[in-house]
Design brief:
This protein has 2 domains: 212 residues, no CATH class; 131 residues, AttH-like fold (Beta Barrel), CATH 2.40.370.10. The radius of gyration is 19 Å and the shape is globular. It contains no helices and 27 strands. 0% of the residues lie in helices and 60% in strands. By secondary structure, it is mainly beta. The two termini are 33 Å apart. The strands form 4 sheets. Strands 3, 6, 7, 8, 9, 10, 11, 12, 13, 14, 15, 16, 17 and 18 form a 14-stranded antiparallel sheet that branches. A 9-stranded antiparallel sheet has the order 22-21-20-19-27-26-25-24-23, with no helix packed on it. A two-stranded antiparallel ribbon has the order 1-2.
Length: 344
């Protein structure tokens, strides 16, 4: 277990075989305007979040706790009752009233967000092989209450995570830990209760810390599910401001917990109509998928220090992925795509 990606004041980029005992990106120097910026000033530019995509056969829940700096905490819980055939609803809070904290490390740390009637707590305990999620969200207007007590099983011996520290500009880096995990527990949406069992329910974990430049963009695709042979497949593909994505990237495939690295990813979409099908592929030829959106959550922010154009779509992927296991047929597996352009 490594202590952290920052050594002698600078983040060391690379793909790591194990998680860090502490993600000490808050101790890094960065380059801004050609000048070296020390901590704690660089800490003012640190963006952090923890995101879960919770996938049940009947239900999808997107959950995020975001600390973009400037005292502007953000959290949302987006719920889609997949078997009901409608676009879902969202509980969302942002601004200085929302108290957010993103765990500094995954071994034993807490991520939380709280405001009156909205409480999210994620107890990260990688040392015990789990993450526990507690939701206590009250009903508001036409949006029902959401309650949850869930456990994500994070057995490092069975499922290897992608742990990456990547360049995002001169003297700046990002850290991410991504992995598909079995999910168990209970969720209640309004008057309806759902039970998550680890044989058929999954959580896509994404924890992220970055000294992004003022203008940032990314496209992201992720999916999880079982193929026709019963294997659990997970996929993560990203294209962003990382200038060296042919050499270093956060693109990976999981087959029954085994991690396979992938080449640089490219996205083809219609930004005038993001609900049209996307094509997602890798330059190495391993991945060629069509993503068919079924709904979206979006935002347009134009605040004093922050402007954001964001689309996160849920839907299904179909196509092929080539791996050491052979050609994997992807047939309508559930997942997400994002298109994000932000100044912060």
């Amino acid at each position: 277990m490594r202590e952290g990606p920052v050594e002698q004041g600078w983040a060391r980029v690379g793909i790591y075989d194990e998680e860090f005992s502490a993600v000490n990106l808050d101790q890094a120097w960065i380059i801004s305007g050609g000048l070296r910026v020390p901590p704690p000033l660089s800490r003012l530019r640190l963006k952090q979040w923890q995101h879960f995509a919770l996938v049940l056969p009947e239900l999808y829940v997107g959950l995020a706790v975001v600390d973009p700096g400037f005292g502007l905490g953000t959290s949302w819980c987006h719920v889609v009752q997949r078997d009901a055939g409608h676009g879902g609803f969202e509980h969302r809070h942002q601004g200085p009233r929302v108290k957010v904290h993103v765990s500094r490390q995954l071994w034993d740390g807490v991520t939380r967000a709280g405001v009156k009637g909205y409480h999210v707590e994620i107890k990260n305990a990688l040392s015990r092989g789990e993450h526990r999620i507690q939701l206590a969200i009250d009903a508001r207007r036409d949006r029902p209450a959401v309650r949850a007590a869930l456990r994500c099983v994070h057995d490092l011996a069975a499922i290897r995570p992608l742990v990456a520290v990547l360049p995002v500009g001169e003297g700046r880096a990002m850290y991410t830990h991504k992995v598909p995990l079995p999910l168990e527990g209970a969720i209640t949406v309004g008057q309806r209760s759902y039970t998550a069992t680890p044989d058929r329910c999954f959580a896509l974990l994404d924890i992220h810390k970055a000294h992004y430049p003022r203008h940032t963009f990314w496209n992201w695709a992720t999916l999880v599910g079982r193929d026709a042979r019963g294997r659990v497949l997970g996929l993560n593909l990203t294209r962003n401001v990382n200038p060296d994505d042919r050499e270093l990237n956060e693109n990976a495939l999981w087959v029954d917990g085994q991690l396979r690295r992938l080449g640089a990813a490219r996205f083809e979409l219609d930004r005038d109509d993001v609900l049209r099908p996307w094509r997602v592929r890798t330059l190495c030829g391993a991945v060629d998928l069509v993503f068919t959106p079924r709904g979206e959550r979006s935002e347009r922010l134009n605040l004093w220090l922050m402007r954001s154009m964001f689309h996160q779509l849920h839907g299904t992927f179909s196509g092929t992925v080539r791996s050491v296991e052979g050609v994997l047929d992807i047939d309508r597996l559930f997942g997400l795509c994002e298109d994000h352009d932000v100044r912060w």
